């Protein structure tokens, strides 16, 4: 009887662990950062929406820095200011 209960317990535990939420993956899409355009292009302070998106897209920043069409924006002084204001360090890639 004890072994049946133990087996059931282990089975249920394994089942629950298997269904445990995994880390949310981010879809890298530079247009998600459109709310930061004003801050990056004009030195305006970043909005809360900008900071939220920047935090969300942080795992993608290295990819964006390597993109010839985007690296000028990502590496700009204003972009660094926005990143600092939002508390999102630009990764060294």
UniProtKB/TrEMBL annotation:
Superkingdom in the source lineage: Eukaryota
SMART domains membership: AAI
GO MF, any single term: lipid binding
Entry's Gene Ontology BP terms: lipid transport
Signal peptide: 1-22
Pfam family, one: LTP_2
Protein keywords: Lipid-binding, Signal, Transport
Occurrences of domain Bifunctional inhibitor/plant lipid transfer protein/seed storage helical (ranges): 28-93
InterPro entries with a match to the protein in the record: Bifun_inhib/LTP/seed_sf, Bifunc_inhib/LTP/seed_store, nsLTP2
Stated family: Belongs to the plant LTP family. B11E subfamily.
Annotated protein name in UniProt: Bifunctional inhibitor/plant lipid transfer protein/seed storage helical domain-containing protein
Organism: Musa troglodytarum (fe'i banana)
């Amino acid at each position: 009887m004890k072994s049946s209960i133990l087996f059931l317990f282990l089975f249920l535990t394994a089942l629950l662990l298997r269904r445990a939420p995994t880390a949310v993956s981010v879809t890298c899409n530079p247009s998600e950062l459109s709310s930061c355009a004003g801050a990056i292009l004009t030195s305006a302070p970043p909005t809360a929406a900008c900071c939220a998106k920047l935090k969300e897209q942080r795992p993608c920043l290295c990819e964006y820095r390597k993109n010839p069409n985007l690296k000028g924006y990502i590496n700009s002084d204003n972009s660094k200011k926005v990143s600092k204001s939002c508390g999102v360090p630009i990764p060294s890639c």
